[in-house]
Amino acid sequence: MKYKEIDINPANPIVMGILNATPDSFYNKGRESSVDELVQHAGRMIDEGAAILDIGGQSSRPKAELISVDEECRRVRPVLKTIRAEFPHVLLSVDTFQREVASLCLANGADMINDISGGDMDEAMIDLVAQSKAPYVCMHMKGTPQTMQQQPTYENVVQEVYDYFSAKLEWLHAKGLDDVILDVGFGFGKTLEHNYQLLNVMSTFLTLNKPLLAGISRKSMVYKPLHSSAEQALNGTTALHMVALQQGASILRVHDVKEAMECIILHKKLTERGKTLSSD
Protein backbone atom coordinates (compact mmCIF):
# COMPACT_ATOMS: atom_id res chain seq x y z
CA MET A 1 0.00 0.00 0.00
CA LYS A 2 1.48 3.36 -1.04
CA TYR A 3 0.23 6.74 0.11
CA LYS A 4 1.89 10.13 -0.47
CA GLU A 5 5.30 8.63 -1.27
CA ILE A 6 5.23 6.34 1.76
CA ASP A 7 5.17 2.65 0.94
CA ILE A 8 3.47 0.84 3.82
CA ASN A 9 4.65 -2.77 3.86
CA PRO A 10 6.40 -5.17 6.25
CA ALA A 11 9.68 -4.98 4.31
CA ASN A 12 10.01 -1.31 5.26
CA PRO A 13 8.18 -0.75 8.59
CA ILE A 14 7.40 2.77 9.76
CA VAL A 15 6.53 4.45 13.03
CA MET A 16 3.30 6.22 13.95
CA GLY A 17 3.87 8.60 16.85
CA ILE A 18 1.05 8.99 19.40
CA LEU A 19 0.02 12.57 20.12
CA ASN A 20 -2.66 12.71 22.80
CA ALA A 21 -4.64 15.92 23.13
CA THR A 22 -6.38 14.40 26.14
CA PRO A 23 -6.11 14.86 29.90
CA ASP A 24 -6.97 11.25 30.77
CA SER A 25 -4.99 8.80 28.61
CA PHE A 26 -3.41 5.82 30.38
CA TYR A 27 0.05 7.10 29.44
CA ASN A 28 0.62 10.60 28.21
CA LYS A 29 3.88 12.46 28.68
CA GLY A 30 2.13 15.75 27.98
CA ARG A 31 -0.97 15.52 30.13
CA GLU A 32 -3.12 18.59 29.55
CA SER A 33 -0.43 20.04 27.26
CA SER A 34 -0.98 23.30 25.46
CA VAL A 35 -1.14 23.40 21.67
CA ASP A 36 2.41 24.78 21.58
CA GLU A 37 3.71 21.94 23.75
CA LEU A 38 1.97 19.33 21.61
CA VAL A 39 3.41 20.87 18.44
CA GLN A 40 6.89 20.83 19.98
CA HIS A 41 6.39 17.18 20.90
CA ALA A 42 5.27 16.49 17.32
CA GLY A 43 8.46 18.09 16.03
CA ARG A 44 10.59 15.89 18.29
CA MET A 45 8.81 12.74 17.07
CA ILE A 46 9.32 13.77 13.45
CA ASP A 47 13.01 14.43 14.10
CA GLU A 48 13.29 10.98 15.67
CA GLY A 49 11.84 9.35 12.57
CA ALA A 50 8.03 9.21 12.85
CA ALA A 51 6.44 8.94 9.40
CA ILE A 52 2.90 9.39 10.76
CA LEU A 53 1.52 11.31 13.72
CA ASP A 54 -1.72 10.04 15.26
CA ILE A 55 -3.66 12.83 17.00
CA GLY A 56 -6.39 11.88 19.44
CA GLY A 57 -8.83 13.90 21.49
CA GLN A 58 -10.88 11.05 23.02
CA SER A 59 -9.17 8.68 25.43
CA SER A 60 -9.83 5.03 24.60
CA ARG A 61 -8.45 3.54 27.81
CA PRO A 62 -10.80 1.12 29.62
CA LYS A 63 -13.79 2.91 31.17
CA ALA A 64 -12.77 6.25 29.65
CA GLU A 65 -15.46 8.90 29.78
CA LEU A 66 -17.04 9.61 26.41
CA ILE A 67 -16.86 13.27 25.43
CA SER A 68 -19.05 15.22 23.04
CA VAL A 69 -18.25 15.79 19.38
CA ASP A 70 -17.79 19.49 20.13
CA GLU A 71 -15.28 18.80 22.90
CA GLU A 72 -13.32 16.32 20.80
CA CYS A 73 -13.15 18.82 17.94
CA ARG A 74 -12.10 21.57 20.35
CA ARG A 75 -9.18 19.44 21.54
CA VAL A 76 -8.02 18.17 18.16
CA ARG A 77 -8.61 20.92 15.60
CA PRO A 78 -6.07 23.55 16.78
CA VAL A 79 -3.37 20.89 17.23
CA LEU A 80 -4.06 19.43 13.80
CA LYS A 81 -4.12 22.78 12.02
CA THR A 82 -0.91 24.01 13.63
CA ILE A 83 1.00 20.80 12.97
CA ARG A 84 -0.24 20.75 9.37
CA ALA A 85 1.11 24.27 8.88
CA GLU A 86 4.41 23.59 10.68
CA PHE A 87 5.11 20.17 9.14
CA PRO A 88 3.37 20.03 5.74
CA HIS A 89 5.04 16.80 4.62
CA VAL A 90 4.30 14.50 7.57
CA LEU A 91 1.29 12.19 7.37
CA LEU A 92 -1.35 13.12 9.93
CA SER A 93 -3.79 10.57 11.28
CA VAL A 94 -6.71 11.34 13.57
CA ASP A 95 -7.74 8.76 16.16
CA THR A 96 -11.55 9.02 16.29
CA PHE A 97 -14.65 6.86 15.94
CA GLN A 98 -17.01 9.79 15.32
CA ARG A 99 -17.86 10.78 11.75
CA GLU A 100 -18.32 14.48 12.52
CA VAL A 101 -14.87 14.69 14.08
CA ALA A 102 -13.32 12.82 11.17
CA SER A 103 -15.06 15.10 8.66
CA LEU A 104 -13.77 18.25 10.38
CA CYS A 105 -10.26 16.86 10.60
CA LEU A 106 -10.10 15.71 6.97
CA ALA A 107 -11.17 19.23 5.98
CA ASN A 108 -8.38 20.68 8.12
CA GLY A 109 -5.43 18.69 6.86
CA ALA A 110 -5.72 15.15 8.21
CA ASP A 111 -4.51 12.45 5.81
CA MET A 112 -6.01 9.33 7.39
CA ILE A 113 -8.44 8.11 10.02
CA ASN A 114 -7.68 5.64 12.81
CA ASP A 115 -10.98 4.17 14.04
CA ILE A 116 -10.82 1.89 17.09
CA SER A 117 -14.35 0.66 16.37
CA GLY A 118 -13.93 -0.28 12.70
CA GLY A 119 -17.04 1.76 11.92
CA ASP A 120 -19.16 -0.08 14.46
CA MET A 121 -19.70 2.95 16.70
CA ASP A 122 -20.63 5.25 13.79
CA GLU A 123 -21.41 3.49 10.51
CA ALA A 124 -21.53 6.84 8.68
CA MET A 125 -17.76 6.97 9.19
CA ILE A 126 -17.18 4.46 6.39
CA ASP A 127 -19.04 6.45 3.73
CA LEU A 128 -17.12 9.58 4.73
CA VAL A 129 -13.70 7.96 4.54
CA ALA A 130 -14.55 6.17 1.28
CA GLN A 131 -15.59 9.46 -0.30
CA SER A 132 -12.42 11.18 0.93
CA LYS A 133 -10.14 8.41 -0.42
CA ALA A 134 -8.17 8.63 2.82
CA PRO A 135 -6.47 5.53 4.25
CA TYR A 136 -8.40 3.93 7.10
CA VAL A 137 -7.07 2.04 10.11
CA CYS A 138 -9.68 -0.58 11.01
CA MET A 139 -9.24 -1.97 14.51
CA HIS A 140 -10.94 -4.89 16.20
CA MET A 141 -12.58 -4.11 19.53
CA LYS A 142 -15.01 -6.28 21.47
CA GLY A 143 -17.52 -3.97 23.14
CA THR A 144 -16.79 -0.30 23.77
CA PRO A 145 -14.08 1.41 25.83
CA GLN A 146 -16.59 1.45 28.70
CA THR A 147 -17.31 -2.31 28.54
CA MET A 148 -14.46 -3.98 26.64
CA GLN A 149 -12.51 -5.27 29.64
CA GLN A 150 -15.49 -6.70 31.50
CA GLN A 151 -14.48 -10.36 31.24
CA PRO A 152 -13.97 -10.59 27.45
CA THR A 153 -14.40 -14.16 26.20
CA TYR A 154 -13.76 -15.95 22.90
CA GLU A 155 -13.91 -19.56 21.80
CA ASN A 156 -10.90 -18.88 19.57
CA VAL A 157 -9.66 -15.29 19.67
CA VAL A 158 -7.43 -15.57 16.58
CA GLN A 159 -10.16 -17.13 14.43
CA GLU A 160 -12.82 -14.70 15.64
CA VAL A 161 -10.69 -11.62 14.98
CA TYR A 162 -9.72 -13.04 11.57
CA ASP A 163 -13.38 -13.67 10.69
CA TYR A 164 -14.27 -10.16 11.85
CA PHE A 165 -11.70 -8.63 9.50
CA SER A 166 -12.72 -10.87 6.59
CA ALA A 167 -16.33 -9.73 6.85
CA LYS A 168 -15.36 -6.13 7.54
CA LEU A 169 -13.09 -5.94 4.50
CA GLU A 170 -15.90 -7.21 2.25
CA TRP A 171 -18.11 -4.42 3.58
CA LEU A 172 -15.41 -1.76 3.26
CA HIS A 173 -14.57 -2.80 -0.30
CA ALA A 174 -18.26 -2.74 -1.23
CA LYS A 175 -18.30 0.84 0.01
CA GLY A 176 -15.29 1.66 -2.18
CA LEU A 177 -12.78 1.81 0.66
CA ASP A 178 -9.65 -0.09 -0.36
CA ASP A 179 -6.75 1.62 1.45
CA VAL A 180 -7.24 -0.23 4.74
CA ILE A 181 -4.74 -0.95 7.51
CA LEU A 182 -5.63 -3.64 10.07
CA ASP A 183 -5.07 -3.41 13.83
CA VAL A 184 -5.94 -6.50 15.90
CA GLY A 185 -6.63 -4.25 18.88
CA PHE A 186 -4.31 -5.36 21.65
CA GLY A 187 -6.02 -4.59 24.95
CA PHE A 188 -9.38 -3.74 23.39
CA GLY A 189 -11.72 -6.44 24.66
CA LYS A 190 -8.91 -8.95 25.23
CA THR A 191 -7.37 -10.57 28.26
CA LEU A 192 -3.61 -10.77 28.72
CA GLU A 193 -3.69 -14.28 27.29
CA HIS A 194 -5.73 -13.16 24.26
CA ASN A 195 -3.20 -10.43 23.53
CA TYR A 196 -0.28 -12.83 23.53
CA GLN A 197 -2.13 -15.39 21.44
CA LEU A 198 -2.74 -12.71 18.79
CA LEU A 199 0.81 -11.37 18.88
CA ASN A 200 2.29 -14.86 18.61
CA VAL A 201 0.50 -15.55 15.30
CA MET A 202 -0.06 -12.02 14.01
CA SER A 203 1.44 -13.00 10.65
CA THR A 204 -1.76 -15.05 10.09
CA PHE A 205 -3.51 -11.77 9.29
CA LEU A 206 -1.10 -11.04 6.43
CA THR A 207 -3.20 -13.43 4.33
CA LEU A 208 -5.87 -10.70 4.27
CA ASN A 209 -3.45 -8.70 2.08
CA LYS A 210 -3.58 -5.51 4.11
CA PRO A 211 -0.81 -3.80 6.13
CA LEU A 212 -0.78 -4.55 9.84
CA LEU A 213 -0.48 -1.94 12.59
CA ALA A 214 0.77 -2.99 16.03
CA GLY A 215 -0.46 -0.90 18.95
CA ILE A 216 1.47 -2.34 21.88
CA SER A 217 3.21 0.68 23.34
CA ARG A 218 3.27 0.75 27.18
CA LYS A 219 0.01 -1.22 27.44
CA SER A 220 -0.90 -3.49 30.35
CA MET A 221 0.07 -6.54 28.27
CA VAL A 222 3.63 -5.24 28.67
CA TYR A 223 3.73 -4.07 32.25
CA LYS A 224 1.41 -6.53 34.03
CA PRO A 225 3.66 -9.60 33.46
CA LEU A 226 6.59 -7.46 34.63
CA HIS A 227 4.74 -6.20 37.74
CA SER A 228 5.56 -2.63 36.79
CA SER A 229 3.65 0.28 35.27
CA ALA A 230 3.08 2.12 31.99
CA GLU A 231 5.82 4.56 32.99
CA GLN A 232 8.30 1.68 33.40
CA ALA A 233 7.25 -0.26 30.30
CA LEU A 234 9.60 1.06 27.61
CA ASN A 235 12.01 -1.88 27.66
CA GLY A 236 9.20 -4.43 27.56
CA THR A 237 7.49 -2.48 24.78
CA THR A 238 10.66 -2.61 22.68
CA ALA A 239 10.93 -6.37 23.20
CA LEU A 240 7.39 -6.91 21.94
CA HIS A 241 7.91 -4.47 19.06
CA MET A 242 10.62 -6.77 17.74
CA VAL A 243 8.18 -9.68 17.88
CA ALA A 244 5.55 -7.62 16.03
CA LEU A 245 8.07 -6.79 13.30
CA GLN A 246 9.03 -10.45 12.98
CA GLN A 247 5.31 -11.20 12.64
CA GLY A 248 4.98 -8.79 9.71
CA ALA A 249 3.85 -5.49 11.22
CA SER A 250 4.19 -2.56 8.81
CA ILE A 251 3.44 0.17 11.37
CA LEU A 252 4.41 0.49 15.03
CA ARG A 253 2.12 2.92 16.87
CA VAL A 254 4.24 4.22 19.72
CA HIS A 255 4.81 6.77 22.46
CA ASP A 256 8.62 6.50 22.12
CA VAL A 257 9.69 7.07 18.53
CA LYS A 258 13.47 6.92 18.90
CA GLU A 259 13.43 3.50 20.53
CA ALA A 260 10.92 2.13 18.00
CA MET A 261 13.08 3.36 15.12
CA GLU A 262 16.11 1.65 16.66
CA CYS A 263 14.09 -1.55 16.84
CA ILE A 264 13.20 -1.25 13.14
CA ILE A 265 16.84 -0.62 12.18
CA LEU A 266 18.01 -3.71 14.05
CA HIS A 267 15.17 -5.80 12.65
CA LYS A 268 16.19 -4.78 9.13
CA LYS A 269 19.79 -5.75 9.92
CA LEU A 270 18.62 -9.18 11.08
CA THR A 271 16.50 -9.58 7.95
CA GLU A 272 19.36 -8.55 5.66
CA ARG A 273 21.71 -10.98 7.42
CA GLY A 274 19.17 -13.77 7.02
CA LYS A 275 18.92 -13.09 3.29
CA THR A 276 22.73 -13.11 2.96
CA LEU A 277 23.02 -16.45 4.74
CA SER A 278 20.28 -18.03 2.65
CA SER A 279 22.03 -17.01 -0.59
CA ASP A 280 25.48 -18.32 0.47
Structural write-up:
The protein is an alpha/beta fold and 280 residues long. It has one domain: Dihydropteroate synthase-like (TIM Barrel), CATH 3.20.20. The protein is 41% helix and 14% strand. It is built from nine helices and ten strands. The protein has helices at 35-47, 69-86, 99-107, 124-132, 157-174, 192-200, 220-223, 234-246, 257-279, and strands at residues 2-3, 6-7, 14-20, 52-56, 91-95, 112-115, 136-139, 180-183, 212-214, 251-254. The protein has an eight-stranded parallel beta barrel, surrounded by six helices. Helix 3 (99-107) packs parallel to helix 4. The protein is globular, with a radius of gyration of 18 Å. The two termini are 31 Å apart.
Question: Layout of helices and strands, plus pairs?
Answer:
Blueprint: E1 2-3, E2 6-7, E3 14-20, H1 35-47, E4 52-56, H2 69-86, E5 91-95, H3 99-107, E6 112-115, H4 124-132, E7 136-139, H5 157-174, E8 180-183, H6 192-200, E9 212-214, H7 220-223, H8 234-246, E10 251-254, H9 257-279
Shape: globular
CATH architecture type: Alpha-Beta Barrel
The average pLDDT value, as a whole number, equals 91
Poorly predicted segments: none
Question: How much beta, percentage-wise?
Answer: 5-15%
CATH topology: TIM Barrel
Q: What's the CATH C level?
A: Alpha Beta
